[in-house]
Design brief:
about 140 residues, alpha/beta, 5 strands
Length: about 140
């Protein structure tokens, strides 16, 4: 999660919402990314999607069985769908997203019994640090 926070700061430095993510298989980081929708002109360029794409490229496979995704903010429905399609085993996130969270806050997609894959979810890991980074970013934008 500390690496995810570092990646979130990369997003912040680029003027993007500070969210960072990485995919780990065993002890190896196989993909990482940060929010880039503004710079890339791509509404799907959330940190999780960028990290999943990098991990898939590393493994030469769209299935990421046996992996863990670490992300500073609870995944949105789009990212949760991609996580499920990639067959990520576990998702670990920091701050809850009370407006669009899909891992328990608003929706419960990662563990939905009707879907063909479910992820183990751990939340609240470095939540204060993740939340503070987001709060400071949006406070600065309002000023």
């Amino acid at each position: 999660m500390k690496r995810a926070l570092e990646l979130a700061r990369c997003a912040e430095a680029e003027g993007e919402v500070p969210v960072g993510a990485l995919v780990v298989k065993g002890e190896e980081v196989i993909g990482e990314g940060w929010n880039r929708p503004v710079a890339s002109h791509d509404p799907t360029a959330h940190a999780e999607i960028v990290a999943l794409r990098a991990a898939s490229s590393t493994l030469n496979n769209y299935r990421l069985n046996g992996t863990t995704l670490y992300v500073t903010l609870e995944p949105c429905p789009m990212c949760a769908g991609a996580i499920i399609q990639a067959r990520v085993e576990r998702v670990v996130f920091g701050a809850f997203d009370p407006r669009a969270g899909a891992a328990g806050s608003v929706f419960e997609l990662l563990d939905a019994p009707d879907l063909n894959h479910r992820c183990e979810v751990m939340n609240g890991i470095l939540a204060k640090e993740s939340g503070a980074l987001l709060q400071a970013f949006f406070q600065q934008r309002r000023e």
